[in-house]
Design a protein that fits this description.
The protein is α/β, with parallel strands linked by helices. It contains ten helices and eight strands. About 35% of the residues lie in helices and about 15% in strands.
Length: about 300
């Protein structure tokens, strides 16, 4: 049995596409609390975080928008994430766009650092989100969190300092298939481990993930999962505003979660970029709930037959 804490992070200022703020409620309606309790876990829902409205702040890169609100969310999330991963609790952060990771990861990494543990990150996403405030052309700040929490330059004076940056080499990005050139250069420079969809096609998701899991085990590290809905193929998960064809299949995604459960390494997880406004009859929210259930012990043999 695990002590699981749910926290909604209803932010959608990291993108120009609104709707992700409804993500936490959609996952709750899909039954995440009841599902995890049925697996024998102790589950507490802390509700949703809120921030006060903030005036806009300018950056020399004029494409950047909602900078003050984005900073406000990051400052609000970080200390809460730090607190929620204390004493063996496993927080499930339900977003909200992927800017949330700029708050959750610095928080959990600070806790790991203070506990003298190595922090690792499995980044499940079509995008690397490795822009800085200077390199982003869209100005959508859900595209910057990975560069920020790994301690890259370009955030000073705008985002809060990261107390314990995650080592870039401790990040494994699985399922990438849309990376801008500035990101490509920075990923190579910082030696971030990457397995794009071609690598998955050639080698299989199990072999790629198994090697990373062994690294975390050897280091006796803590593992944070940052799961973006667009890691999945849009045919099975349409509720995302950054749709990229060719994502992970139903079985690949469940296999990832089942392997992570078997590893017993996962200490926290983000669920990001669910936009219920774009969903089909709750299809994506139900799938995400099922995937989280796999992460916490639901087995293939437990799956009921569903009527068409």
């Amino acid at each position: 049995m695990k002590r699981i804490t749910l926290l909604g992070i209803p932010l959608d200022v990291g993108s120009v596409r609104r709707g992700c703020r409804m993500g936490p409620d959609a996952v709750r309606v899909a039954g995440i609390t009841e599902t995890l309790k049925s697996l024998g876990h102790d589950v507490v829902d802390f509700g949703d975080l809120k921030i006060d409205p903030a005036p806009e702040r300018q950056h020399p890169n004029r494409a950047v928008h909602h900078l003050e609100a984005c900073t406000g969310w990051i400052e609000r999330i970080q200390p809460v994430a730090y607190e929620l991963c204390a004493d063996g609790q496993v927080p499930v952060f339900i977003g909200g766009d992927h800017l949330m990771a700029a708050g959750t990861l610095p928080g959990v990494a600070q806790r790991a650092h203070e506990d003298d543990a190595e922090q690792f990150v499995l980044w499940l996403d079509a995008h690397s989100d490795f822009h800085t405030l200077d390199t982003t052309k869209s100005g959508n700040l859900h595209g910057v969190p990975a560069a920020y929490f790994t301690g890259c330059d370009g955030f000073e004076g705008y985002f809060p300092p990261v107390a314990a940056p995650v080592k870039p080499g401790n990040v494994f990005m699985l399922g990438l298939r849309s990376v801008d050139e500035p990101e490509r250069q920075m990923l190579a420079e910082h030696k971030v481990a990457i397995a794009d969809m071609r690598a998955i096609d050639e080698h299989g998701v199990a072999s790629l993930l198994r090697g990373f899991i062994e690294r975390v085990k050897k280091a006796k590290g803590r593992l944070h999962i940052s799961f973006d809905v667009d890691f999945l193929d849009p045919a099975i998960a349409p509720a995302v505003g950054t749709m990229v064809p060719g994502g992970a299949t139903f079985r690949e995604a469940h296999l990832v979660m089942e392997m992570l459960h078997d590893s017993r390494l996962v200490t926290s997880i983000d669920i990001a970029e669910l936009n219920p406004f774009l969903d089909h009859c709750g299809q994506t929210a139900v799938l995400l709930t099922d995937l989280v259930a796999s992460l916490f012990g639901k087995r293939v043999l437990d799956r009921p037959t569903r009527s068409p």
